[in-house]
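FAQ

Q: What does a record look like?
A: Structure on top, sequence underneath. For example:
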Protein backbone atom coordinates (compact mmCIF):
# COMPACT_ATOMS: atom_id res chain seq x y z
CA UNK A 1 0.00 0.00 0.00
CA UNK A 2 1.32 3.44 -0.93
CA UNK A 3 1.54 5.97 1.88
CA UNK A 4 -0.84 8.84 1.19
CA UNK A 5 1.79 11.22 2.63
CA UNK A 6 4.17 10.57 -0.26
CA UNK A 7 5.30 13.88 -1.82
CA UNK A 8 4.69 12.33 -5.22
CA UNK A 9 0.99 11.95 -4.44
CA UNK A 10 0.53 15.46 -3.06
CA UNK A 11 -2.30 16.87 -5.24
CA UNK A 12 -0.62 20.28 -5.20
CA UNK A 13 2.87 19.01 -5.94
CA UNK A 14 4.56 19.12 -9.35
CA UNK A 15 5.91 15.61 -8.85
CA UNK A 16 2.39 14.17 -8.75
CA UNK A 17 1.41 15.98 -11.93
CA UNK A 18 4.54 14.82 -13.74
CA UNK A 19 3.94 11.24 -12.56
CA UNK A 20 0.36 11.32 -13.79
CA UNK A 21 1.53 12.58 -17.16
CA UNK A 22 4.00 9.72 -17.52
CA UNK A 23 1.54 7.15 -16.19
CA UNK A 24 -1.19 8.00 -18.67
CA UNK A 25 1.13 7.24 -21.59
CA UNK A 26 0.62 3.51 -21.22
CA UNK A 27 -1.02 1.71 -24.11
CA UNK A 28 -4.55 1.54 -22.67
CA UNK A 29 -5.83 -0.61 -25.53
CA UNK A 30 -3.56 -3.43 -24.40
CA UNK A 31 -5.01 -3.34 -20.87
CA UNK A 32 -8.82 -3.51 -21.16
CA UNK A 33 -9.24 -3.88 -17.39
CA UNK A 34 -7.20 -0.76 -16.66
CA UNK A 35 -10.11 1.30 -15.29
CA UNK A 36 -11.15 -1.52 -12.98
CA UNK A 37 -7.85 -2.05 -11.17
CA UNK A 38 -7.67 -1.10 -7.47
CA UNK A 39 -6.83 2.53 -6.78
CA UNK A 40 -3.82 1.48 -4.67
CA UNK A 41 -2.21 -0.14 -7.72
CA UNK A 42 -2.56 3.04 -9.74
CA UNK A 43 -1.12 5.12 -6.89
CA UNK A 44 1.83 2.76 -6.49
CA UNK A 45 2.69 3.00 -10.17
CA UNK A 46 2.30 6.77 -10.25
CA UNK A 47 4.66 7.06 -7.30
CA UNK A 48 7.16 4.81 -9.07
CA UNK A 49 6.96 6.99 -12.16
CA UNK A 50 7.22 10.23 -10.20
CA UNK A 51 10.42 9.71 -8.21
CA UNK A 52 13.81 11.34 -8.83
CA UNK A 53 15.71 10.12 -11.86
CA UNK A 54 12.58 8.75 -13.53
CA UNK A 55 11.81 11.66 -15.80
CA UNK A 56 11.83 9.45 -18.89
CA UNK A 57 10.82 6.19 -17.27
CA UNK A 58 7.49 4.51 -17.76
CA UNK A 59 5.73 1.24 -17.16
CA UNK A 60 6.21 0.68 -20.85
CA UNK A 61 9.67 2.12 -21.50
CA UNK A 62 9.09 2.61 -25.21
CA UNK A 63 6.74 5.50 -24.43
CA UNK A 64 9.51 7.68 -23.02
CA UNK A 65 8.24 11.10 -21.98
CA UNK A 66 4.76 9.87 -22.61
CA UNK A 67 2.65 12.95 -22.17
CA UNK A 68 4.62 14.58 -25.00
CA UNK A 69 4.37 11.38 -27.03
CA UNK A 70 0.64 11.16 -26.49
CA UNK A 71 0.27 14.82 -27.38
CA UNK A 72 2.30 14.54 -30.56
CA UNK A 73 0.46 11.42 -31.67
CA UNK A 74 -3.12 12.38 -30.85
CA UNK A 75 -3.21 16.13 -30.26
CA UNK A 76 -4.17 18.31 -27.33
CA UNK A 77 -7.82 17.28 -27.10
CA UNK A 78 -7.13 13.58 -26.57
CA UNK A 79 -4.28 14.29 -24.16
CA UNK A 80 -6.58 16.52 -22.10
CA UNK A 81 -9.28 13.85 -22.06
CA UNK A 82 -6.92 11.09 -20.88
CA UNK A 83 -5.32 13.26 -18.22
CA UNK A 84 -8.72 14.28 -16.87
CA UNK A 85 -9.80 10.65 -16.65
CA UNK A 86 -6.77 9.55 -14.64
CA UNK A 87 -7.20 12.56 -12.35
CA UNK A 88 -10.85 11.64 -11.78
CA UNK A 89 -10.04 7.97 -11.20
CA UNK A 90 -7.42 8.77 -8.58
CA UNK A 91 -9.30 11.65 -6.95
CA UNK A 92 -6.53 14.07 -7.94
CA UNK A 93 -6.96 17.49 -9.58
CA UNK A 94 -7.26 17.58 -13.38
CA UNK A 95 -4.06 18.36 -15.27
CA UNK A 96 -4.37 21.28 -17.65
CA UNK A 97 -2.57 21.52 -20.96
CA UNK A 98 0.00 24.30 -20.61
CA UNK A 99 -1.04 27.43 -22.54
CA UNK A 100 2.15 27.67 -24.59
CA UNK A 101 1.54 24.25 -26.15
CA UNK A 102 -0.41 24.22 -29.39
CA UNK A 103 -1.52 21.40 -31.60
CA UNK A 104 1.00 21.14 -34.48
CA UNK A 105 -1.77 20.56 -37.03
CA UNK A 106 -3.96 23.53 -36.06
CA UNK A 107 -1.07 25.92 -35.45
CA UNK A 108 0.33 25.14 -38.89
CA UNK A 109 -3.06 25.79 -40.45
CA UNK A 110 -3.39 29.10 -38.63
CA UNK A 111 0.08 30.17 -39.77
CA UNK A 112 -0.87 29.39 -43.35
CA UNK A 113 -4.06 31.37 -43.06
CA UNK A 114 -6.18 28.28 -42.59
CA UNK A 115 -8.99 27.67 -40.08
CA UNK A 116 -8.50 28.60 -36.44
CA UNK A 117 -7.49 26.03 -33.87
CA UNK A 118 -10.14 23.50 -32.87
CA UNK A 119 -12.05 24.70 -29.83
CA UNK A 120 -14.19 21.59 -29.34
CA UNK A 121 -12.77 19.06 -26.89
CA UNK A 122 -13.65 15.59 -25.64
CA UNK A 123 -15.70 15.23 -22.45
CA UNK A 124 -13.29 15.67 -19.58
CA UNK A 125 -14.62 12.93 -17.31
CA UNK A 126 -14.63 15.31 -14.36
CA UNK A 127 -17.51 14.98 -11.85
CA UNK A 128 -20.63 16.96 -12.76
CA UNK A 129 -22.40 18.15 -9.64
CA UNK A 130 -25.90 19.54 -9.14
CA UNK A 131 -28.33 20.01 -6.28
CA UNK A 132 -29.92 16.60 -6.71
CA UNK A 133 -27.43 14.39 -8.54
CA UNK A 134 -23.70 13.93 -8.98
CA UNK A 135 -22.28 12.32 -12.13
CA UNK A 136 -18.95 10.49 -11.98
CA UNK A 137 -17.30 8.09 -14.38
CA UNK A 138 -18.82 4.61 -14.21
CA UNK A 139 -16.25 1.94 -13.31
CA UNK A 140 -16.11 -1.73 -12.45
CA UNK A 141 -16.61 -0.82 -8.80
CA UNK A 142 -20.15 0.40 -9.60
CA UNK A 143 -21.33 -2.68 -11.44
CA UNK A 144 -22.93 -4.54 -8.53
CA UNK A 145 -25.06 -1.49 -7.76
CA UNK A 146 -26.41 -1.64 -11.32
CA UNK A 147 -28.16 -4.94 -10.62
CA UNK A 148 -31.36 -3.56 -8.98
CA UNK A 149 -31.75 -1.09 -11.86
CA UNK A 150 -31.09 -3.61 -14.60
CA UNK A 151 -33.40 -6.15 -12.94
CA UNK A 152 -36.26 -3.66 -12.44
CA UNK A 153 -39.17 -5.11 -14.49
CA UNK A 154 -40.69 -1.64 -15.00
CA UNK A 155 -37.62 -0.62 -17.02
CA UNK A 156 -38.58 -3.09 -19.75
CA UNK A 157 -42.30 -2.37 -19.78
CA UNK A 158 -42.25 0.66 -22.09
CA UNK A 159 -40.15 -0.48 -25.04
CA UNK A 160 -36.66 -0.62 -23.58
CA UNK A 161 -35.74 -3.87 -25.31
CA UNK A 162 -32.13 -3.44 -26.44
CA UNK A 163 -30.96 -6.17 -24.08
CA UNK A 164 -32.26 -8.86 -21.76
CA UNK A 165 -33.36 -8.35 -18.19
CA UNK A 166 -30.63 -10.02 -16.07
CA UNK A 167 -31.67 -12.94 -13.91
CA UNK A 168 -28.80 -12.87 -11.41
CA UNK A 169 -26.03 -10.65 -10.08
CA UNK A 170 -23.47 -12.44 -12.25
CA UNK A 171 -25.69 -11.95 -15.31
CA UNK A 172 -26.07 -8.24 -14.45
CA UNK A 173 -22.30 -7.88 -14.11
CA UNK A 174 -21.75 -9.39 -17.55
CA UNK A 175 -24.48 -7.23 -19.06
CA UNK A 176 -23.17 -4.01 -17.52
CA UNK A 177 -19.64 -4.70 -18.75
CA UNK A 178 -20.76 -5.47 -22.29
CA UNK A 179 -23.29 -2.64 -22.64
CA UNK A 180 -22.29 0.25 -20.38
CA UNK A 181 -18.54 -0.16 -19.85
CA UNK A 182 -17.56 -1.18 -23.36
CA UNK A 183 -15.17 1.42 -24.83
CA UNK A 184 -15.29 3.40 -21.58
CA UNK A 185 -12.55 6.04 -21.51
CA UNK A 186 -11.56 5.53 -25.16
CA UNK A 187 -13.23 8.50 -26.84
CA UNK A 188 -11.08 9.41 -29.86
CA UNK A 189 -12.79 12.50 -31.27
CA UNK A 190 -13.69 10.66 -34.46
CA UNK A 191 -16.83 8.95 -33.20
CA UNK A 192 -15.23 6.08 -31.27
CA UNK A 193 -15.29 5.34 -27.56
CA UNK A 194 -17.51 6.75 -24.85
CA UNK A 195 -17.62 8.53 -21.51
CA UNK A 196 -20.12 6.74 -19.28
CA UNK A 197 -21.32 8.22 -16.01
CA UNK A 198 -22.76 6.78 -12.83
CA UNK A 199 -25.62 9.01 -11.69
CA UNK A 200 -25.81 9.19 -7.89
CA UNK A 201 -27.97 11.16 -5.49
CA UNK A 202 -26.06 14.21 -4.31
CA UNK A 203 -27.67 14.49 -0.86
CA UNK A 204 -30.10 12.83 1.49
CA UNK A 205 -33.66 13.58 0.40
CA UNK A 206 -37.00 11.97 -0.35
CA UNK A 207 -35.26 10.44 -3.37
CA UNK A 208 -33.04 8.35 -1.10
CA UNK A 209 -29.73 8.51 0.77
CA UNK A 210 -26.82 10.48 -0.65
CA UNK A 211 -24.62 8.33 -2.87
CA UNK A 212 -27.41 6.00 -4.03
CA UNK A 213 -26.93 4.91 -7.64
CA UNK A 214 -30.01 6.08 -9.55
CA UNK A 215 -28.87 5.31 -13.06
CA UNK A 216 -26.34 5.83 -15.82
CA UNK A 217 -25.88 7.91 -18.97
CA UNK A 218 -23.17 8.27 -21.60
CA UNK A 219 -21.58 10.73 -23.99
CA UNK A 220 -20.45 8.95 -27.14
CA UNK A 221 -19.85 9.41 -30.88
CA UNK A 222 -17.82 12.54 -30.13
CA UNK A 223 -16.97 14.16 -33.47
CA UNK A 224 -14.61 17.06 -32.83
CA UNK A 225 -14.43 18.20 -36.45
CA UNK A 226 -18.20 18.48 -36.80
CA UNK A 227 -18.81 19.56 -33.18
CA UNK A 228 -21.33 16.79 -32.59
CA UNK A 229 -21.85 14.33 -29.74
CA UNK A 230 -24.46 11.74 -28.69
CA UNK A 231 -26.08 11.78 -25.25
CA UNK A 232 -27.51 8.31 -24.72
CA UNK A 233 -27.44 4.87 -23.10
CA UNK A 234 -29.50 6.45 -20.33
CA UNK A 235 -31.13 4.19 -17.79
CA UNK A 236 -32.76 4.96 -14.44
CA UNK A 237 -34.45 2.79 -11.86
CA UNK A 238 -38.23 3.33 -12.01
CA UNK A 239 -38.15 4.77 -8.48
CA UNK A 240 -36.61 7.96 -9.91
CA UNK A 241 -38.82 8.41 -12.97
CA UNK A 242 -40.62 11.74 -12.97
CA UNK A 243 -38.29 13.22 -10.35
CA UNK A 244 -35.46 15.76 -10.53
CA UNK A 245 -32.96 13.04 -11.49
CA UNK A 246 -33.40 13.05 -15.27
CA UNK A 247 -33.81 16.81 -15.86
CA UNK A 248 -30.82 17.66 -13.70
CA UNK A 249 -28.69 14.92 -15.26
CA UNK A 250 -29.54 16.24 -18.71
CA UNK A 251 -28.84 19.80 -17.55
CA UNK A 252 -25.41 18.83 -16.25
CA UNK A 253 -24.48 16.75 -19.29
CA UNK A 254 -25.63 19.28 -21.88
CA UNK A 255 -24.04 22.16 -19.99
CA UNK A 256 -20.79 20.21 -20.13
CA UNK A 257 -21.22 19.52 -23.85
CA UNK A 258 -22.17 23.03 -24.96
CA UNK A 259 -20.43 25.28 -22.45
CA UNK A 260 -17.36 23.31 -21.34
CA UNK A 261 -16.53 21.28 -24.44
CA UNK A 262 -17.79 23.52 -27.25
CA UNK A 263 -20.14 21.19 -29.15
CA UNK A 264 -22.66 22.61 -31.57
CA UNK A 265 -25.08 19.66 -31.63
CA UNK A 266 -26.12 17.11 -29.04
CA UNK A 267 -27.98 14.12 -30.43
CA UNK A 268 -30.43 12.07 -28.36
CA UNK A 269 -32.08 8.97 -29.79
CA UNK A 270 -34.33 6.14 -28.70
CA UNK A 271 -36.18 3.09 -29.94
CA UNK A 272 -39.49 3.78 -31.72
CA UNK A 273 -40.99 1.24 -29.31
CA UNK A 274 -39.85 3.20 -26.26
CA UNK A 275 -42.72 5.64 -25.93
CA UNK A 276 -41.79 6.71 -22.41
CA UNK A 277 -38.30 7.73 -23.53
CA UNK A 278 -39.67 9.66 -26.50
CA UNK A 279 -41.96 11.65 -24.22
CA UNK A 280 -39.10 12.42 -21.84
CA UNK A 281 -36.83 13.62 -24.67
CA UNK A 282 -39.55 15.81 -26.16
CA UNK A 283 -40.16 17.33 -22.71
CA UNK A 284 -36.52 18.46 -22.65
CA UNK A 285 -37.19 20.67 -25.65
CA UNK A 286 -35.10 18.62 -28.09
CA UNK A 287 -36.18 18.79 -31.73
CA UNK A 288 -37.41 15.61 -33.39
CA UNK A 289 -35.43 15.09 -36.59
CA UNK A 290 -36.93 11.87 -37.87
CA UNK A 291 -36.56 8.09 -37.88
CA UNK A 292 -33.62 5.95 -38.98
CA UNK A 293 -35.02 2.61 -40.06
CA UNK A 294 -33.32 -0.70 -39.21
CA UNK A 295 -30.77 1.31 -37.30
CA UNK A 296 -29.39 -0.85 -34.49
CA UNK A 297 -29.34 -4.57 -33.84
CA UNK A 298 -30.86 -5.63 -30.53
CA UNK A 299 -29.45 -8.40 -28.38
CA UNK A 300 -32.16 -10.80 -29.57
CA UNK A 301 -31.16 -10.31 -33.21
CA UNK A 302 -34.02 -8.03 -34.23
CA UNK A 303 -33.38 -4.53 -35.53
CA UNK A 304 -34.76 -1.36 -34.05
CA UNK A 305 -35.89 1.81 -35.76
CA UNK A 306 -34.49 4.84 -33.94
CA UNK A 307 -36.18 8.20 -33.37
CA UNK A 308 -33.55 10.95 -33.62
CA UNK A 309 -33.71 14.20 -31.65
CA UNK A 310 -31.16 16.95 -31.22
CA UNK A 311 -30.40 20.21 -29.46
CA UNK A 312 -28.26 22.78 -31.28
CA UNK A 313 -26.06 25.36 -29.57
CA UNK A 314 -28.40 28.18 -30.65
CA UNK A 315 -31.30 26.31 -29.02
CA UNK A 316 -29.41 25.50 -25.84
CA UNK A 317 -30.25 28.71 -23.90
CA UNK A 318 -33.99 28.02 -24.23
CA UNK A 319 -33.57 24.31 -23.40
CA UNK A 320 -31.39 25.19 -20.41
CA UNK A 321 -33.98 27.69 -19.13
CA UNK A 322 -36.71 25.07 -19.50
CA UNK A 323 -34.72 22.54 -17.49
CA UNK A 324 -33.98 25.08 -14.76
CA UNK A 325 -37.68 25.89 -14.50
CA UNK A 326 -38.48 22.21 -14.06
CA UNK A 327 -35.94 22.02 -11.26
CA UNK A 328 -37.32 25.12 -9.54
Amino acid sequence: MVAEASPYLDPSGPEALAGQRRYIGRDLASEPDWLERPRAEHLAEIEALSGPGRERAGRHGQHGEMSTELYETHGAAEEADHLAQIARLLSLPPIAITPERTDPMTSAAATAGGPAAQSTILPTGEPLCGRWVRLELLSGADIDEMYPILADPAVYAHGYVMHRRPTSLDDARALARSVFLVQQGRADGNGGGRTTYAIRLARDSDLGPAGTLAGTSSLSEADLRNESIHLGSTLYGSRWWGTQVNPESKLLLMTHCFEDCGYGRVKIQTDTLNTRSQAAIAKLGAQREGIIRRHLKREDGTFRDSVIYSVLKDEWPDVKARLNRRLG
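Q: Is there anything notable about this one?
A: The first strand starts at residue 128 and ends at 129.
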